[in-house]
Amino acid sequence: MKPAINPNKIVVFTGAGISVSSGLEAFRNSGLRTVGLHEQLASPHAWNRRRKEVIEYYNWRRECAGKAQPTLAHLAIARLEQKYEVVVITQNVDDLHERAGSRDVIHLHGELRKVRCCGQHALVSDIGISPQHLGDTCPDGHELRPHVVWFGEQVMQYSEAGRHFKTAAKVLVIGTSLQVDPAAKLPKKGRYRAEKLIVNPHFDVADRPYSYRIIHKEADCIVPDIVAAWLDGQRW
Ligand SMILES: [Zn+2]
């Protein structure tokens, strides 16, 4: 049997497109970094062979994310909590949702501001915007690694994210192409009766999950309007 829909629950699912106006890309592009660096360094293989470079790469990305600012769309999403139970599920590793005020955020691909120990207890700790140093350890002496998902690794909290989709009365998907699994499968778990929107100026309608409406606009232009309508008790 399917779980009951919670009429007061909203799931917001976000990807890189929500951060266009945050400055994140501008900071990243100003660094004269090698094209393809992410593909070279975001893997367990690189961690074993080029550990110092991997740590420096994530230190740099953490620094860029720290300089970026939440967008109008991030801020609008946080306002939904005035009236609704909101779960934000994001593919982004920055903390812009948290800094905008969202309190319940699932990071499918991990978080730049956290590291975890490579020991069995996989203790996660928040280092804020500080750099990680080669050889840093947890209190038990296990080496620390960035708390992010690398190529070939499982996304985090996928089942939990799926359960939230199944019980939401409204689903708002922002700034993701839905072309990469397993994240692309999540919106399909949204219920037929739920109000479901996708905001993405470049979204290919061929990839549209069943019964979603597509809005081909930038997040900052339209998400505040959608949020205002929902806070007013209207469908958008
Ligand atoms: Zn440990």
TrEMBL record:
It is an enzyme of class 2 (transferase). SUPFAM superfamilies: DHS-like NAD/FAD-binding domain. Gene3D superfamilies: SIR2/SIRT2 'Small Domain, TPP-binding domain. Its EC number is 2.3.1.286. It comes from the Bacteria. GO terms for molecular function: histone deacetylase activity, NAD-dependent; NAD+ binding. Residues 1-236 form the Deacetylase sirtuin-type domain. Keywords: NAD, Transferase. This is protein acetyllysine N-acetyltransferase. It comes from Halomonas campaniensis. The lineage of its organism: Bacteria, Pseudomonadati, Pseudomonadota, Gammaproteobacteria, Oceanospirillales.
